[in-house]
Write a structure and sequence with these properties.
By secondary structure, this protein is of the alpha+beta class. The protein contains 18 helices and 16 strands. The structure holds iron/sulfur cluster (2 copies).
Length: 469
């Protein structure tokens, strides 16, 4: 058994000088991970099947006549649970993003990077779709390596061509669904029915997306997690000794078998490197938590199999915190976790309030510029307003307006306002008050908006008039 302080004595520190996916000449070191197998891999397969069913089903689902989810970034139109969110919902969107970020931070502080291995679309598609196809076409890691190093011949051309074709076709399907998430499945199907020649621009965009997905899954692969993804790079500041990550139990495992002759008291690790061979990012988890580890748990399964053969207890590599390994400490609800939880609850409550009080029509009332007030012959004072309204639904809405009788009267210039779905309308209106009822130069008036008999909202605005007329 070794202590945390002794740990570094047993670990070859050379791993700090290089990246597994880059060779000494600075070229890409292609990783050929061995096909994982084991209980966690089976669970991950089931989870990914559910994940993929949800991913490919959501664009087909509709709610209130709208897509269940649509994230049209270009048109700044977002639909969640059938509710349309536009630029006027910026605060809800910002708060939603903030909630998501705090949730991710809290989740990472407690559970480390488990999201990456089990729920990130990049890992799910890479490891559970493209990698499986690769094993099916080219065979396990040894065969893949042989194929890469062999000279070009009929066999290699056939294997490579099949892989390119299959990968490109799957990338094309994913690109179509990606577009459906952006512009809705209805639009994608419309383009399909109307033909490529009528939508050449969209078609080339689709080919662009397909090519990007193909490039990522055929060649770039784990580099997305190691080099591009900002979340991976945040681990250094988010994880602490209490965070649960995929970790090697160095207390039980060290000194490794190869050190046996020197140390004379070997730990449980037999230095078989099975855990390294299955790792899709090519790292050795025995060196400790590393940025490249996506918590895919393949090394846990691989090591469990070895421990099983050796009739030693499993979970030499397991989900555990540094404190759990070094001091056998259970997960503690630390001040940091408490603080993040409180912040998350506060933001979440604010988000729920904003969502539940969100109106289907966004209304802004302003007094007409350049006009102060008008004295009318019947003893009334009038103010002219313009109301800018945005209908957030896809249906046409007709509004009626009123103010309490004792406050005065309201007149709409023109007909009752009807706003087409997802459109703006500007309404001009006149509010009249009896001159004798005006006691302040700048008073307030409340205007009620109704859809049918149902009150939508009440807007307050200023009313200006001469005092003591
Ligand atoms: S170290 Fe283990 S959990 Fe981390 S990426 Fe490699 S195989 Fe997956
Ligand atoms: S699989 Fe287990 S026993 Fe083999 S090298 Fe890795 S940690 Fe050691």
């Amino acid at each position: 058994m070794i202590s945390a302080n002794q740990k570094t004595e047993f670990i070859d520190q050379a791993y700090r000088d290089s990246v597994a996916t880059i060779d000494k000449k600075g070229k890409r070191n292609y990783i050929f991970p061995k096909k994982p197998k084991g209980s966690l891999y089976n669970k991950r397969t089931i989870a990914s099947i559910i994940y993929l069913i949800v991913f490919f089903s959501l664009p087909w689902i509709k709610m209130n006549g709208e897509p269940f989810i649509m994230l049209n970034v270009l048109k700044r139109k977002f639909i969640l649970f059938g509710q349309i969110f536009g630029p006027q919902d910026f605060f809800i969107f910002a708060l939603g993003m903030l909630t998501f970020v705090v949730f991710i931070i809290l989740f990472t502080v407690v559970f480390g990077r488990v999201f990456c291995g089990w729920a990130c679309p990049q890992t799910v598609f890479m490891e559970m779709v493209f990698r499986k196809l690769e094993y099916w076409i080219e065979g396990d890691s040894t065969k893949q390596h042989q194929l890469k190093t062999m000279p070009w011949n009929g066999y290699k051309i056939r294997k490579r061509a099949t892989k390119i074709l299959v990968f490109y076709l799957v990338s094309f399907v994913i690109a179509n669904y990606f577009m459906a998430y952006l512009i809705s499945m209805d639009e994608v199907m419309r383009y399909v029915h109307e033909g490529i020649s009528n939508h050449l621009g969209t078609f080339f965009t689709l080919i662009g997306f397909t090519s990007v997905f193909f490039f990522v899954y055929y060649w770039f692969r784990e580099q997305v997690c190691i080099v591009v993804c900002p979340y991976g790079r945040l681990q250094g500041v988010l994880l602490d000794k209490n965070s649960i990550v995929v970790a090697y139990d160095y207390v039980r495992g060290e000194p490794r078998l190869k050190k046996l002759e020197k140390e004379g008291n070997a730990g449980d690790c037999v230095d078989c490197k099975a855990c390294v061979r299955v790792c899709p990012t090519g790292i050795d988890i025995r060196n400790g938590t590393q940025l490249e580890c996506v918590n895919c748990t393949a090394c846990i399964d691989a090591c469990d199999e070895i421990m099983d053969h050796l009739k030693r207890p499993k979970k030499l590599i397991r989900f555990a915190s540094e404190n759990n390994i070094a001091q056998k400490q259970k997960l503690r609800f630390t001040t940091r976790i408490k603080a993040y939880s409180v912040v998350l609850m506060l933001i979440l409550s604010a988000l729920v309030i904003m969502l539940s009080t969100r109106d289907v029509v966004d209304i802004t009332i302003l007094r007409t510029q350049g006009m102060v007030y008008q004295k009318l012959p019947d003893g009334y004072i009038s103010n002219l307003y313009s109301a800018r309204m945005f209908n957030k639904t896809h249906k046409e809405i007709t509004l009626t307006l009123s103010i309490p009788e004792q406050e005065g009267q309201i007149e709409i210039i023109g007909k009752q306002p009807t706003i087409a779905g997802e459109s703006y309308a500007i309404l001009t209106l006149l509010v009249k008050k009896k001159a004798v009822s005006i006691h302040k130069r700048k008073d307030e008036v409340k205007i009620d908006f109704f859809i049918g008999n149902k009150k939508l909202t009440t807007k307050n605005t200023t009313f200006i008039g001469p005092v003591g007329s």
